[in-house]
Specification:
The complex is a heterodimer of chains A (410) and B (266). Helix content of chain A is 65%, strand content 2%. Chain A contains 16 helices and four strands. The longest helix of chain A is centred in the C-terminal third of the chain and has 33 residues, at 341-373. In chain B, a hairpin with a 2-residue loop joins strand 1 (21-31) and strand 2. Residues 1-8 of chain B have low confidence and may be disordered. The chains are: A mainly alpha (410), B alpha/beta (266).
Amino acid sequence: MADTGQGPSDQGAANQGFVPTDGRRGANGSLPVSLRREMMVGGVLRFSSLGVLIMLIIFFAAAAPGFTSALSLTNILASTSVFLLLSLGETFVMISGGIDISVGSMLGLGGVAGALYMSNNYKGGNGFSSSAGSAGLWLLVVGTIISLAVGLTGGLLNGSLVVFLKINPLIVTLATYGAFSGFADLLSNGVPVVNLPPASVTVGTGELWNIPYIVFFAGGVALVLSWVAKNTRFGRYTYAVGASREAVRRAGVNLKLHTPMLYGLSGMLAGLAGMINAAHFSTASSTSGANDLLVAIAAVVIGGTPLSGGEGRIWGTVVGALIYTLLENGFVLMNVPSFWQLPVIGLLIIIAVSLDQYQRRLRTELSAYRSLEGITAAEPEGGDGQAAGGEETVGTADQAGAGSLLKPPL
Amino acid sequence: MDGSLRRPVGSASTDLRPTNELRLENVAKSYGGVRALKPITTTFSRGLTGIVGDNGAGKSTLMKILSGVITPDAGSMWLNDRKVAFTSPIAAKRAGVESLYQELALAETLDVTGNIFLGRELTKNFFGLRVLKHREMAASARVTLKQVRINIPDVTSMVRSLSGGQRQAVALARAIHFNAPVVLLDEPTAALGPRETASVSTIIEHLVEQGKLVIMVTHNIPQVITMATRIIVMRAGSIVWEVDPRQTSEEELMSYMVGTRTTKNG
């Protein structure tokens, strides 16, 4: 997390450093008291998901026996890795103002497709499982490429339907959710795919410095995507489309190319998640991602990407994903019945969205106030590292992007 | 501002050749059964052409056709005797036509630089990815904003943090940044105070001095009489009068706009 809350723009907000362009200020030289108070509340909210994560760690460390053990922490990271890949793709789609609910079944389809290739071509196993090793490395490589290709194809189909037929993405991906699930069943005959090569088992269960390979893998993907969101034209257009599709169209951006690419990325990451999932559990099933869809979307929302799009950030999603896994593992360690997990996640989503709405209202009021009084922020809001996208905004306090639990209130 | 047609940063695909005239022949547009623009034939020349008219007169429809946002149902357009078809905003931009839209068309969660360069970012290739050149774009945006002369805290300010006037300034900066020979301005001073309106007027005068073809839709009659080299009055989707501003008055223009006069001697 780059934002520490101590950046210049943050101070500007906290100190109400809004200087009228014509030298005027309010009666006491600052914003109205009510607006100031609300902005301070909003300033606190920006850190809330990171704060929630830290508080959960402290709470479970004190209350859940064994929570801080290496095994427990390793489990948390490994459990997060698979659905984090889904969430990362979903983050891009949601920043653009869309949604992709087909990723759940794409995880199953991608995993089954890649695993089936590996299973059918691996002759060294006993027909059910393998131990770790390097045998079948090329099978793993080709299987992974197949998973990626299947995911990419499904995603491109989603994006094409959205942009060419102008169908709501929720409807499109709801339809393909069922279709992908059906294809996965057709491919696997409805039974789990086993007999994966040792290289797959090694990648899925091996560790480096007691940290599973798949954690490095998911972390690396998150790093790359964070950079892509902030520093590439693709990332810039993704934020811009979410902010105003019409503005982007009038700017001459080819949405008929960008939208399929966006959903293609989401699908590809879902396919990859399917392969990682298969490698981790040494089996692939058409139902593998069924429980991951809600979790993936929850991680994005809790991490501060609003459903309305235009804002959000990759690291917020990582924090959101960790919050979910912490709860899951903490509850298990505290012997809390597992059926409490989903209600708690649901509650977190509602809180996240409520706070998002609150921050939006603050921004609207502040914007109206500025327009009325002809004032503007003295410090560059600079905020939203991804949204603003400039190098000069990198490392400022407001990287998170508004509307988020992690992002600036203004 | 100098008068040369400098090639601005990020304008590789824009046609910067001077445009002497933009000609429309029987250009028309209907929405369902509503004729928003009846067949119009006119020629815009270098200098500032002001378009005035009441709400629903067809001004914005005409501007959207000229900027490629909507395509006309009929008619043809010619730039310097070269037939053009603006089937999209990017087609118009490539032909050298930049626009400031009435509704501004800004992405609120992007910063000022992001909005100025939206669709034409400066990038470098990195393994097939187009990587943004943040510093170059910011520096170039600052130069343009200085020309606009409306106080904006910084190019890294998010547009949603700006006042209405500042947003207007960002949209104007985007319209002039790429040094296009044809500039369309739809209500460029609508959200501005007197001081900012004066700044924008100065910018428009500079554009005219540079030999650009500027078309401005406005409700500000005194401003258009002072600045324009020609005024077109529209009503109910048609051009009802064209006049040299030195030969008319506010009252006369108003009478054509509202329809109390329909001919020069009416």
